[in-house]
Amino acid sequence: MTANRSAVYFALLLLLPAVAYILFIVAYPLVDTVILSFTNAALRPKVDWVGWANYQKIFANSRFTEIIIRTIVWTICSVGLKMIIGTCGAVLLNATIPGQAIFRILTMPPWVVPMAIGIYMWGWMYNGQFGMISGLLQNFGITDGPYAFLGYPTPAFWSTIVTDVWIGVPIVTIYLLAAIQSVPKDLYEAAWADGAGRFYRFRRITLPLILPAMLTMSLLSLIATFNSFDIIWILTQGGPSGSTTTMIIDTFQTGIRSSKYGEGAARAVMICIFVSIFCLVYFRAVRRLSQGAAQ
Description:
Helix content: over 70%
Structural class: mainly alpha
Strand content: under 5%
CATH architecture: Orthogonal Bundle
Number of strands: 0
CATH superfamily: MetI-like
CATH class: Mainly Alpha
Number of helices: 13
């Protein structure tokens, strides 16, 4: 009994750092944000309890509905492109070709380069007067003059997506490459002996076996993309005319720039709710896929 009790105490002692981290770094700020969202906290000495007033302002504002839709579209398009390009890149990097190691190294710069520097680089390329992209379009006769991609709503929206995909593809590619390399070679050899082509082997062997890794990577990428702030803020700061304002940008503008801490906290809580919904949908999809594979 004494030995068992000592083992339990030792196990609890080992868990203590993780529990302390969750309580003070995760739980406390989250609870404090929820409480703050029910107040009118701002740059004033007095803070009053306003109940659901901040949330009512959010849902009464038709602009916030547009922001939600824009955030969902931005996230789905970005994550979808990352997964498609990352999967194709992983398959190509897994192929036995001369200079394979060099090609693998060349996939890393977008992820290795500091994010701010990479984003500023894209900002210069999108520039209408000095940007490389605008210059190429003029040289090929596609545009008659300089074209500022970040100066118009639709091009600015898709420009931020392209930049986010460029930054996120390398980690997706390396992660899925590791998953592909873990697939037993015997399965490919047996399928090749039976006359199966490359596409058939990919569809029947590679894809089903790396599906758990793809789902995990898509969830991580979805959460990171949904909460992505640096890319949009450095490139457009939510403009022009709010065309690139997502939920996280709107939360920053309301809570920090406008010093409406209570309303900003309410928007932050909404972000947590949306991310939680995405996670629940993800886990249900994984469960259904697992059940289908088992049957």
